[in-house]
Design brief:
Layout (H helix, E strand, L loop, with lengths): L4 H16 L2 H8 L3 H15 L4 E2 L6 E2 L1 H27 L3 E9 L11 H9 L3 E9 L2 H9 L5 E4 L8 E16 L10 H10 L1 E5 L3 H8 L3 E6 L2 H9 L5 E4 H10 L2 E3 L6 E11 L6 H19 L8
Parallel strand pairs: 3-4, 3-5, 7-8
Antiparallel strand pairs: 1-2, 5-11, 6-9, 6-10, 6-11
Helix pairs in contact: 1-2, 1-3, 1-4, 5-11
Length: 309
């Protein structure tokens, strides 16, 4: 089949349908009505001479041939994007898309170079669409391996083959309790130590061993997948747990949360830049990573006032 502009449009619609899991998701993504999406899909099936998906009361599901067409479509779309990037590079201009992944609730971290790197990158003469995704470390690893994101900045307790990790900086984690918790009003170290062993402890599932080892004896009664969930548990007064110091600072200043024995219960997490090990050189990714490293180095030499304590 000869591919023309109409076929490319139909293939993009089919790709979006497959990625979003059906007509409702594609409708929101593309701004097209369900009837229009259905017509486009039928037209593509007629051009290809195969049934791409099953749709009806049973839901939306790709056929075996649909799965194969989806794989070929992704290769074609990637090739077109590579062509666009490479021809733009010949003119000395960055054109394309940059997909960045970060771990949740780093926006309060004055040591993070992400904002400065994005500002530096955006100041260039380019036409790059930036996508910023927030996910837990395991999700970021998967997204790097399957090509959904180009790079990620996060802690990675479990590193995987196929991804290269470069340390950037570290963040301090302290053990916290909030108002309403029995530990909140205790100032005696011995009484604190005894109460900790009886306290309900909440830990991050993605670095459970690290969190448990850092607190020692405590009753592990809750697990979370992100920092906001952990903050909710701590602020309820029913749990204690580790939070990054920069993230908890707001509640500490309000007087509703306090660190427990920060001289003893603390550890540092290394924030790393993660990129796929294999793959073609991408000037957009290379340029942003260079900006990220430059800003990270600058911030290490000139820390924000909060880091000068």
């Amino acid at each position: 089949m000869r591919v023309d502009n109409i076929d490319l449009r139909l293939l993009r619609v089919f790709h979006t349908l497959a990625q979003t899991g059906g007509f409702s998701g594609a409708q929101a993504e593309l701004g097209l009505s369900v009837s229009t999406l259905s017509i486009h899909l039928s037209n593509l099936e007629q051009r290809l001479g195969v049934t791409l998906c099953e749709r009806g009361r049973g839901g939306f599901r790709l056929t075996d041939k649909g799965e194969r067409v989806l794989a070929s479509t992704e290769k074609l779309l990637h090739a077109l994007e590579d062509f666009r990037i490479e021809t733009a590079a010949l003119r000395g201009r960055l054109i394309g898309e940059l997909a960045i992944g970060i771990v949740d609730n780093t926006v309060t971290d004055d040591r993070s170079p992400i904002r400065a790197a994005i500002r530096r990158f955006a100041s260039r003469d380019s036409d790059v669409h930036v996508r910023l995704a927030v996910d837990r470390p395991a999700g970021l690893n998967h997204a790097l391996l399957d090509g959904r994101i180009n790079l990620a900045v996060a802690i990675f307790p479990h590193q995987v083959s196929g991804v290269t990790y470069t340390p950037l900086y570290s963040e301090t984690n302290l053990l916290y309790c909030a108002r309403g918790n029995p530990l909140f009003g205790i100032n005696d170290p011995e009484a604190e130590a005894e109460q900790i062993t009886r306290s309900n402890y909440a830990a991050r599932a993605y670095q459970l061993d690290r969190d448990l080892a850092a607190v020692g004896e405590a009753v592990h009664r809750a697990s979370v997948e992100n920092m906001e969930a952990l903050a909710h548990l701590l602020l309820s007064g029913a749990f204690i747990g580790f939070l990054p110091e920069h993230y908890a600072q707001h509640w500490v200043e309000e007087g509703v949360m306090r660190p427990i024995r920060p001289d003893r219960y603390r550890f540092n997490s290394v924030i790393e830049l993660a990129t796929p090990t294999a793959g073609k050189a991408n000037p957009i990714v290379e340029t942003f990573c260079a900006d990220l490293r430059a800003e990270n180095g600058r911030m290490a030499q000139h820390p924000a006032p909060a880091q000068l304590q």
